[in-house]
Design brief:
Blueprint: E1 2-15, E2 18-23, E3 26-32, H1 39-51, E4 55-56, E5 62-64, E6 72-77, H2 99-117, E7 122-123, E8 130-145
Parallel strand pairs: 3-6, 6-7
Antiparallel strand pairs: 1-2, 1-3, 1-8, 4-5
């Protein structure tokens, strides 16, 4: 399981021209799932995302988590995180989990991060063609992969 997290001033997700999710200060999490992923990895990754210290303290050092800053989170499924473009010019997505495997794990991850934060997390629509807008704060972008 792989999460690309971005510290944002704001982020929104639209599907078919209709806004699905919108947050101010917090994290945009793009979540990729592969066939070998488990709920244990989703739990580990949710805890890591909730607690990673990438928000500035009063000294300008990254010492606070989204949990500590009471930030919001929006999670978007992103199978293209498992795109492999090492050969040729068209990425292969064979490492990305099929929807029947990925969707339950995506939902489990969302529930787990909500539990860590103690509040609702906004989401995109699994499997939909989404338009994601954001203002990256910093910019700060981190990739976290679950231990396998």
């Amino acid at each position: 399981m792989k999460a690309l997290i971005q510290r944002v001033k704001n982020a929104s997700v639209s599907v078919g021209g209709k806004q699905q999710a919108s947050i101010e200060h917090g994290l945009l999490v793009l979540l990729g799932i592969t066939d070998s992923d488990t709920t244990a990895e989703a739990d580990w990754l949710a805890a890591k995302v909730a607690n990673i210290r990438i928000f500035n303290d009063d000294s300008g050092k990254m010492n606070h988590s989204v949990l500590e800053t009471n930030g919001d989170v929006v999670v978007v499924s992103q199978f293209t995180l498992y795109g492999d473009a090492r050969k040729g010019n068209r990425p292969s997505f064979v490492q990305a989990a099929r929807p029947e495997i990925a969707e339950p794990l995506y939902e489990h991850f969302v529930a787990a991060i909500q539990e860590h934060l103690g509040k609702q997390v906004q989401t995109g629509v699994f499997g939909a063609d989404m338009q994601v807008s954001l203002i990256n704060d910093g910019p700060v972008t981190i990739i976290i992969e679950s231990p396998q």
